[in-house]
């Protein structure tokens, strides 16, 4: 990258995703737009190939496990959205790397209060941590309309009179078929909720997106619940999938966001979620979404049925959800990111 040869040290921001063209790569795209509004020269890259030390922001906490990132004089900034030490050896190693390599890490962005507290309790210096929720591009996720809903279902081959529940995430281990569940994402809980809902909703359909959904697909086949899995080549296209929904369910045990929290609100899709990630921070139960404790299958299914059967409640959730999405748009976060990059990037 020749441009860095002629740049002042720490005057440019380089953004590294996970090269999967899914949620983390989308986050680097949005952060590049935020940086532009702040007057910061930002570039999305796959590898670091420059001589002058700069600021490098990694969208995945697993980058902490790559010893090569510590060999330069770059200022390291990193997103750490989810994964406590007790949730797996890889997460434990990430936490240990943050403490052991603290001198190399300049900033850590967390998306929710629970992870912020976890890092501080583990010994990460509080002044290096800043909480900025995973935002929402409201222009990319415009509200669902009746016409959009009909068109989306027709395109997907979903009956017009079906009750459609959405789940757009990666919840299988690895990047293959995903037949082994990534339990932190709660695919087993999701299936148990669907098992209860199918007893009450004869025309239930499930719309899936995201990679590695084999475990959920196999579970739905076993339950006899019809579904459609759309693995999109572009993350932005997920907005069109929301248009087909009646309800979105997050059944995770731990999350950083997820992005679906604000996406569903922006689209006007009633949200049912466990008390995880930034959902726990942003959701007012019964006001802008419905929330239940982690692993509370009965609570999630009851809340889902309540929303589907109570039009007044559903419309109220939609109205308040719109407000929450607007309050947490990427544009509204500009001042937070200004504070984050202050003294990190030199003009």
Count of distinct structural domains? 2
CATH topology of the largest domain: Rossmann fold
Strand order of the largest sheet: 2-1-3-4-5-6
C-alpha termini separation:
19 Å
Query: In angstroms, what is the radius of gyration?
Result: 21 Å
Mean pLDDT: 92
What CATH architecture label of the largest domain applies?
A: 3-Layer(aba) Sandwich
Specify the number of helices. Answer: 13
In percent terms, what proportion of residues is strand? 15-25%
Oligomer kind: single chain
Tell me the total number of β-strands. 12
Give a short account of the largest sheet: 6 strands, parallel
What is the top-level CATH class of the largest domain?
A: Alpha Beta
Outline the structure in words.
The protein is built from 13 helices and 12 strands. 38% of the residues lie in helices and 16% in strands. The protein has 2 domains: 2-135 and 330-341, Rossmann fold, CATH 3.40.50.2000; 146-327, Rossmann fold (3-Layer(aba) Sandwich), CATH 3.40.50. The two termini are 19 Å apart. It is globular and about 60 Å long. The strands form 2 sheets. Strands 2-1-3-4-5-6 form a 6-stranded parallel beta sheet. A 6-stranded parallel beta sheet has the order 9-8-7-10-11-12, sandwiched between helices. By secondary structure, the protein is α/β, with parallel strands linked by helices. α9 packs across α12. The longest helix is centred in the C-terminal third of the chain and has 17 residues, at 311-327. The protein has helices at 2-5, 23-37, 89-100, 113-121, 146-156, 187-200, 214-223, 238-242, 259-267, 277-282, 297-309, 311-327, 334-341; strands at 12-16, 41-45, 55-58, 75-79, 105-110, 129-131, 163-168, 204-209, 227-230, 247-250, 271-274, 290-292.
């Amino acid at each position: 990258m020749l441009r860095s040869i002629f740049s002042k040290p720490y005057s440019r921001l380089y953004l590294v995703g996970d090269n999967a063209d899914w949620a983390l790569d989308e986050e680097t795209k949005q952060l590049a737009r935020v940086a532009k509004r702040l007057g910061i020269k930002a570039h999305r890259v796959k590898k670091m190939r420059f001589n002058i030390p700069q600021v490098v922001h990694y969208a995945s906490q697993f980058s902490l496990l790559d010893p090569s990132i510590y060999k330069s004089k770059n200022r390291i900034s990193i997103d750490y959205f989810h994964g406590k030490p007790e949730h797996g050896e890889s997460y434990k190693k990430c936490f240990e790397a943050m403490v052991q390599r603290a001198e190399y890490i300049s900033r850590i962005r967390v998306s929710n209060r629970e992870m912020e507290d976890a890092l501080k309790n583990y010994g990460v210096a509080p002044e290096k941590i800043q909480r900025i929720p995973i935002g929402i591009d409201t222009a990319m996720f415009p509200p669902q309309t009746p016409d959009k809903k009909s068109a989306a279902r027709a395109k997907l081959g979903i009956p017009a009179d079906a009750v459609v529940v959405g789940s757009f995430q990666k919840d299988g281990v690895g990047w293959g078929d995903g037949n082994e569940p990534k339990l932190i994402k709660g695919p087993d809980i999701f299936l148990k909720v669907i098992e209860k809902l199918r007893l009450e909703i004869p025309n239930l359909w499930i719309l899936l997106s995201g990679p590695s959904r084999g475990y959920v697909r196999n579970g739905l086949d076993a339950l006899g619940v019809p579904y459609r899995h759309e693995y999109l080549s572009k993350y932005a296209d997920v907005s069109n999938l929301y248009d087909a929904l009646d309800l979105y369910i997050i059944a995770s045990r731990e999350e950083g966001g997820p992005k679906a929290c604000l996406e569903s609100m922006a689209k006007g899709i009633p949200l049912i979620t466990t008390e995880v990630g930034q959902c726990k921070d942003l959701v007012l139960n019964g006001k802008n979404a419905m929330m239940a404790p982690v692993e509370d299958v009965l609570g999630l299914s009851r809340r889902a049925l309540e929303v589907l059967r109570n039009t007044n409640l559903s419309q109220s959730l939609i109205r308040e959800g719109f407000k929450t999405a607007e309050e947490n748009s990427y544009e509204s976060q500009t001042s937070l990111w200004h504070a984050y990059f202050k003294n990190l990037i030199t003009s």
